[in-house]
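(Protein data)
===
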Amino acid sequence: MKLHIKNGRVIDPANGIDATQDLFIADGRIAALGAAPAGFTADQTIDAAGLVVAPGLVDLSARLREPGYEYKATLESELQAAMQGGVTTLVCPPDTDPVLDEPGLVEMLKHRARMLDQANVHPLGALTVGLKGQALTEMAELTEAGCIGFAQAEEPILDTTVLLRAMQYAKTFGYTVWLRPQDAHVGRGGVAHSGPLASRLGLSGVPVMSETIALHTIFELMRATGARVHLCRISSAAGLDLIRAAKREGLDLSADVGVHHLHMTDADIGFFDSNARLTPPLRSQRDRDAIRAAVLDGTVDAVCSDHTPVDDDEKLLPFGEASPGATGLELLLSLMLKWAEDQQHGADGDKALALALSRVTREPARIAGLPGGTLGVGAAADVVLFDPTARWKVEGKTLASQGKHTPFLGYELAGQVKATIVRGRVAYQR
């Protein structure tokens, strides 16, 4: 299939491109930008006038719920949601049922995703057997099966010696350890950010120190081992200050935040809205503002959807009993455009859109060690075409994901995906 995408505004942060020009795709790869290659005859031409043509989004945390939780979501529904959201590459945490701690399970998931022929799916392997924090998994075998890194998902490791051994092993073989910093004891069982609002609502709290204590431990282990660590879904200003200092020190680390935390605060819980029950919890306005600034200055390398579909039976409950999580694949692009729009009045206003796209394309691809996130000649043709001005309303009936719960229900957002191209094939067209 040879594709000619004409008249679009091509934005490719990886190559510093932001210009109206044509894009040519052949044999699943980017063949040329600007002028057609010699002898190129298009099988299909797409007029992208008024649209932005960008690399397909790369999402560092998307739970597809297979295997084991098909009643919450299936690969079919969630990969369709990815296509509608312009997300062409997904990284999946290992907290499925059974846990992704065996090569056979990883191979099965990869095979299922290949058969559906939509987004590129890259699993994270479990760092410890069953995510129980005791015995290390066979990381080499899991890597051969297709894992791109190793994580504990939401299960902290109680024994620091186990984490030390895991990081030593990972360093030896050049693997990346993906950790969400949370102390195993402080804030355990909490459902909201520790602060005046949680006190007023009578909700058990998760203090910021749960994150910062864990960060101090992780950084000490990094100094001892030299391991590479990716920090997942940072939620606090204090945590970001520690990361800034660790980066200045030269530790080999990167960090992401969930897109919900880029916009919302604990005040959005309102009258116990369980759609705003997330992990980590939505924090204070000061934390939210620090996250927004950290995405701008590069302390935060990437923004992920933290896509966690939850069914009605587990969400339509009192706040403290509801399962944490929200659908995010179809909102990631629009919420990044909203962040970019909010930066327009700043010093970097004219570069805000390209910067926003880099945080969900080039940077996450770099963190995950994947070849996507670019429209460079020869790169895999994973492309999204979207109208940055078209507005749409977030409603359960319009979401392709089986998870219909998000704290943004009822919001009107800008940025509508018109087409998603995966490996040179038009996988979705509105």
